[in-house]
C-alpha cells in the first residue's frame, strides 16, 4: 500500500514538473533568448608597421633587418640560426613606404562604425622606443596620423547620424590623460593629481574626476587637444629626441539618445593610445629620472605581456590590476572593445632584439578574443536632455496643453516634467516613460523578443496601450502561476520524503533481525571521481592464467585497520587483505607513451578524459604546448603553471595503468 502511495506521489510530482515547464515555457524562451545573445567573439586585430630609415640616425646605411613578404606577412633573420628567417603573419603589414592614410583606412576607419552601435573600440600603438608610435598616432601637420583622421571622420559621422529628424541625438566628448610613472594624470587639467581607475557593476572602466570636454567640430577638438598634448611628458634619450615618457590615452565618447520611445541611450567609447616604448637602457643611455621613467614604462609593458599571456592561456586570474595601464585597458583586451594593435617596428639592425620581441608580443596579442557588446540602457529622465518636440511625445489634446515655457532645449541638465502636477496630465507615452525602469526594461526585452520573431510579432511598445496592458498582465499571471506550482511541487516533494521515512520505519519494525548495528562514524561522501580507472576484468583473468602476464595480482596479508562500532567501547583492530599489482616495465612504458601522445596531440576535450585533469588544467596544458612546443616527457607537466610536482605524480599514477591496459585491450 505504501509503495503505491509513493508511486502516486512521484507521478504527481512528475506531472507538476511538466506543468511548470509548460507554463514557464514562455519565460524560459525569453531567458534563453537573452542567454543566446552572448556577444559574438571578436579577435584583437594586429597590424605591423615598419618605419623607414630616419636620416641622421645610426645604422641608416645598413640593410634593413626586416623584410615584408606581402600585405600580411614579414620575415626577419633568426638570431639562433643565421641560415633561417622567422616568418610572421598578421592582419596587415605596412612597409616603409606606406602612408598615414594607408594605415588609417586599412586598420582604423573600419572599427569606427561600432561606436555608433554603442560599442567600444580601441587602437593601441605598441613598439620599441623610436619605432614610430607617436608618428602613427599623432603624425605631423603635413602627415596627420590616426588621431586627427579618426576624430575628423567620427565627428562627421555623428553629425550625419544625429541630424534633426534622425532617430538618435548624438553628442561627442573627449578626455585626454597620461600614465606617467604609474600615476594617472589629466592632460586637460594640469592641476589635477593622480586619478583613480574604477570599474562599474557592468565591468566598464571609469576614471571619476577626469575632465570631459564636449566637442562638436574638429576645431573644437584641436582647441582642447593641442595645448593638452604639450602637457604630455616627453624627453630626449639617445634613441629618440622627443621620446614619450608616458602612455597617452585619448578617450572619445559617443553618446546617443533616442528621440522617441522607448528612449534608449547608448554609449560607445574609443580609446586612442600611444604607448610609451619599451626601452633597453644599455642602448638608451638612460640615467637618473630617465632611468626611473624607463623602469615604470618597462614594468607596465611587462604586465601588459602577462595580461595577454593569461588571456591566451585562459588563466582564471588575469593580472589587470598589476599596473595602471592594464587596468585601464581591461575592457579593451579580453573585454568588450573592438581592438586593434599597431605594432611599430624599426628597420635598423641595432633594433633587432626589440623588433623580435615586439613581433612576438604582437603575435600573442593576435590570439586574444574580445566580446564587444552594445552599451544600451534607458535614459534616466527620458524627457530630459534630448531635444524632443512635445508633439512627438504627447497625444493631440495633451500636446496643446503642454506646449509652452516648460519645453526644454538640448543639453539642459535638468530633467523636465518632474513636477507632480505635470505628471497628472501625462499621456500614455509619458506614463510609459515615467514607468518604473525595471518594468520598462522588461517591456523592452519583450518588445525585442516580439520583433525578433518576425512579421507575426508586432513590437510591443507600438501596440495599443490596452493590448500592451493585457500582455503585461498575462506575463504577471504566468509568474504567479509558476510560483504557486513551485510551492506545490515543494509540498509534494516533502510528502514523498515523509512517506519514504515512514516506509523504512515500517520495514524496521517488520524485520528487526536483518538490521546490523550502524557504524558509529561520520562518513563524508567523497565527490565521485570523473572516470574510475577499472582494470579490464578480461585482462586480469587472462593474466592470472598466463605465466607471462604483464600484470600480476598478488594477495598480501593485510594491514591492520581500526574499526569503530556501536557495540565496542574501543575501536577494534581488524586485519584486511590487500591486493597489490605488479606491472611489467614494458607495460608501464606503453602507458607513459600513451599519456605523452595525449598530452601532445589531444585537444582540451581529450585531455579532460584523463584522471585529475579538469577543464582548467586541460586549457593550461594546451596553452603551454602552444607556447613551448610538444612535451618531451610526461614529467614536463610540472613545468605547466599551476601543476605541482606532487600533482604530476598523482596524475601519472592515476592514468598510467588505465591507458596501458586500454592499449593492450584495443581501443576503448
Ligand atoms: N613612418 C614614418 N615615416 C617617417 N618618419 C617616421 C615614421 N615613423 C617614425 N618616424 C620618425 O621617427 C622618429 C621617431 O618616431 P616616434 O617619435 O614616433 O617614435 P616613438 O615610437 O613614438 O618613440 P617613443 O616611444 O620614444 O616615444 C621621429 O622623428 C618620427 O618623425
TrEMBL record:
Record-stated family: Belongs to the TRAFAC class myosin-kinesin ATPase superfamily. Kinesin family.
Extent of the signal sequence: none
Its biological purpose: Kinesin family member that is involved in spindle formation and the movements of chromosomes during mitosis and meiosis. Binds to microtubules and to DNA. Plays a role in congression of laterally attached chromosomes in NDC80-depleted cells.
Name of the protein in question: Kinesin-like protein
PANTHER family reported for this sequence: CHROMOSOME-ASSOCIATED KINESIN KIF4A-RELATED, KINESIN-LIKE PROTEIN
SUPFAM superfamilies assigned to the protein according to its UniProt record, in alphabetical order: P-loop containing nucleoside triphosphate hydrolases, RuvA domain 2-like
Gene Ontology process terms (BP): DNA repair; microtubule-based movement; mitotic spindle organization; spindle elongation
The UniProt record lists the keyword Iron-sulfur: no
Amino acid at each position: 500500500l505504501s509503495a503505491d502511495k509513493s508511486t502516486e506521489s512521484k507521478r504527481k510530482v512528475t506531472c507538476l514538473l511538466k506543468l511548470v515547464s509548460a507554463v514557464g515555457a514562455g519565460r524560459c524562451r525569453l531567458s534563453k533568448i537573452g542567454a543566446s545573445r552572448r556577444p559574438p567573439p571578436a579577435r584583437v586585430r594586429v597590424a605591423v608597421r615598419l618605419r623607414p630609415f630616419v636620416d641622421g640616425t645610426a645604422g641608416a646605411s645598413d640593410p634593413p633587418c626586416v623584410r615584408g613578404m606581402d600585405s600580411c606577412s614579414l620575415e626577419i633573420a633568426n638570431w639562433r640560426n643565421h641560415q633561417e628567417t622567422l616568418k610572421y603573419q598578421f592582419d596587415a603589414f605596412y612597409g616603409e613606404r606606406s602612408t598615414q592614410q594607408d594605415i588609417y583606412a586599412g586598420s582604423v576607419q573600419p572599427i569606427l562604425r561600432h561606436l555608433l552601435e554603442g560599442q567600444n573600440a580601441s587602437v593601441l600603438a605598441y613598439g620599441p622606443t623610436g619605432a614610430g608610435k607617436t608618428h602613427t598616432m599623432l603624425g605631423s601637420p603635413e602627415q596627420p596620423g590616426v588621431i586627427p583622421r579618426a576624430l575628423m571622420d567620427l565627428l562627421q559621422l555623428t553629425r550625419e547620424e544625429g541630424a534633426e529628424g534622425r532617430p538618435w541625438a548624438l553628442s561627442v566628448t573627449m578626455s585626454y590623460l597620461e600614465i606617467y610613472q604609474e600615476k594617472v594624470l589629466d592632460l586637460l587639467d594640469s592641476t589635477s593629481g593622480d586619478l583613480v581607475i574604477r570599474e562599474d557593476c557592468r565591468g566598464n572602466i571609469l576614471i571619476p574626476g577626469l575632465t570631459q570636454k564636449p566637442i562638436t567640430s574638429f576645431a573644437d577638438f584641436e582647441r582642447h587637444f593641442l595645448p593638452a598634448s604639450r602637457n604630455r611628458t616627453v624627453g630626449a634619450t639617445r634613441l629618440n629626441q622627443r621620446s614619450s615618457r608616458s602612455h597617452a590615452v585619448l578617450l572619445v565618447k559617443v553618446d546617443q539618445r533616442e528621440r522617441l520611445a522607448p528612449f534608449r541611450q547608448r554609449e560607445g567609447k574609443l580609446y586612442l593610445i600611444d604607448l610609451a616604448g619599451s626601452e633597453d637602457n644599455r642602448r638608451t643611455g638612460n640615467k637618473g629620472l630617465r632611468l626611473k621613467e624607463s623602469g615604470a614604462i618597462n614594468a607596465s609593458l611587462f604586465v601588459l605581456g602577462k595580461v595577454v599571456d593569461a588571456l591566451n592561456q585562459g588563466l582564471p586570474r588575469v593580472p589587470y590590476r598589476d599596473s595602471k595601464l592594464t587596468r585601464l585597458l581591461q575592457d579593451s583586451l579580453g573585454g568588450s572593445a573592438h581592438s586593434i594593435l599597431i605594432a611599430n617596428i624599426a628597420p635598423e639592425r641595432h633594433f633587432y632584439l626589440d623588433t623580435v620581441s615586439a613581433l612576438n608580443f604582437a603575435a600573442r596579442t593576435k590570439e586574444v578574443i574580445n566580446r564587444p557588446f552594445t552599451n544600451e540602457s534607458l535614459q534616466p529622465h527620458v524627457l530630459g536632455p534630448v531635444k524632443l518636440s512635445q508633439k512627438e511625445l504627447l497625444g493631440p489634446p495633451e500636446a496643446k496643453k503642454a506646449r509652452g515655457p516648460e519645453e526644454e532645449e538640448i543639453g539642459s541638465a535638468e530633467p523636465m516634467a518632474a513636477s507632480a502636477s505635470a505628471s497628472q496630465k501625462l499621456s500614455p507615452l509619458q506614463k510609459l516613460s515615467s514607468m518604473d525602469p525595471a518594468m520598462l526594461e522588461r517591456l523592452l526585452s519583450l518588445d525585442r523578443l516580439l520583433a525578433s520573431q518576425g512579421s507575426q510579432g508586432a513590437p510591443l511598445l507600438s501596440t495599443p496601450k490596452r493590448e500592451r496592458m493585457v500582455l503585461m498582465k498575462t506575463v504577471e499571471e504566468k509568474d504567479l502561476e509558476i510560483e504557486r506550482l513551485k510551492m506545490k511541487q515543494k509540498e509534494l516533494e516533502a510528502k514523498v520524503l515523509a512517506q519514504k521515512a515512514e516506509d523504512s520505519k515500517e520495514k524496521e519494525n517488520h524485520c528487526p533481525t536483518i538490521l546490523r548495528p550502524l557504524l558509529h562514524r561520520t562518513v563524508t561522501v567523497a565527490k565521485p571521481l570523473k572516470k574510475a580507472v577499472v582494470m579490464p576484468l578480461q585482462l586480469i583473468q587472462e593474466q592470472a592464467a598466463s605465466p607471462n602476464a604483464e600484470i600480476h595480482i598478488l594477495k598480501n596479508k593485510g594491514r591492520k585497520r581500526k574499526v569503530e562500532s556501536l557495540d565496542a567501547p574501543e575501536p577494534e583492530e581488524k586485519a584486511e587483505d590487500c591486493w597489490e599489482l605488479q606491472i611489467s616495465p614494458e607495460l608501464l612504458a606503453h602507458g607513459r607513451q600513451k599519456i605523452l601522445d595525449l598530452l601532445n596531440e589531444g585537444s582540451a576535450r581529450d585531455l579532460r578524459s584523463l584522471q585529475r585533469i579538469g577543464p582548467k588544467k586541460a586549457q593550461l596544458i594546451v596553452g603551454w604546448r602552444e607556447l613551448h612546443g610538444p612535451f618531451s616527457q610526461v614529467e614536463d607537466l610540472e613545468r605547466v603553471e599551476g601543476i605541482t610536482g606532487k600533482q604530476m605524480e598523482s596524475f601519472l599514477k592515476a592514468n598510467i595503468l588505465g591507458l596501458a591496459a586500454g592499449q593492450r585491450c584495443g581501443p576503448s
